[in-house]
Design a protein that fits this description.
Length: 352
Amino acid sequence: MYALALTQRPAPGTLADAIQMIEIPAPVPRSREVTVKVLASTINIDDIHVAEGTFYGGIPIGPRPRPDRPVTPGSDLAGVVIGVGDAVRRIHVGEAVFGVQKPFRPAGAWAQVCAVDESWVTVKPRNLSFDTAAACGVSGLVALSAIDALKLRPGFRVVIVGATGGIGGVAVQLAVRAGAEVIGVCGPEHVQRAYGLGCSLVLNYKDELWDHTLTSHGRVRVDGVLDLVGGSDVEDAAWRVLGKGGVFVTVVGPERFIGDRALGWAGVLAVLARVASRIVSSRIRGPRYFLTGPSPGGGAALGQVAGVAAAGVVPPIDSIVPFELAAMRQALRRAADHRNNGRIVIRMDQAG
């Protein structure tokens, strides 16, 4: 089979140049694994960070590539099951599925066939294309975790920073369905998309500090802020508009676009220390601070992701690219520069 793979760890910012299209043996499922003929995958920014060794600034997850042991990146996948391990009971050969490959595995989803733990895949809803289903895994799991941390209720007023990305688009829709008033923050070119997703007010972060714009619209206080971008400026703005009983949820933390650069262990520990300090102090003084993401057992929530996706809650899709080296390299550069808005989907219908 063909796979996009690495034979050595690329330096930060060089994954697009280092990735290669190579032919490797198709995987054989272990006891609790299923093998999936991958029909679609996506490019997540964390796929890039894990491959380059800069996840959350440099937390070492994922195996180190070697010439004799290439590593295939990729987490989201959708396709058809072509094999099952002897202990698999829930998933069957021939079923259409989608899910997530865990990042510490050497054989990721950017391949024609992928072996995945059965607990990290679920049956694809019939009304979803493989392209859309592939985009739902990581985005859906993170969005559901974040919305759960916010503890939404009807009338809850929440600001979502990064409202039109893959995770943000799902979070906006889930919040609206929960009866919340959603205020989106995004770039000027995506304002109409944010309104289309269900935001009642959209703030262009390039005009001025979004909390100042919010105040000028008469929204002096909000109940929650969901941060999908990161940075101390977002945290500071949130603290100015949240009451003591409010909730701040971030999937990033105080370092904007964390993972774009190697922080070194000192930098990583400093970020984690600040997060820990925020969490502890928020329990005393408020507003409450949460750092969230899909948990190690997050695959159990894929059934819920499938349910909301079948009901129409799916991530915005930025573009669809073929499983071809030049196109993938171009798409990886766009993702690494944060120039995509929504999920970049890989259609696995050709190789070479």
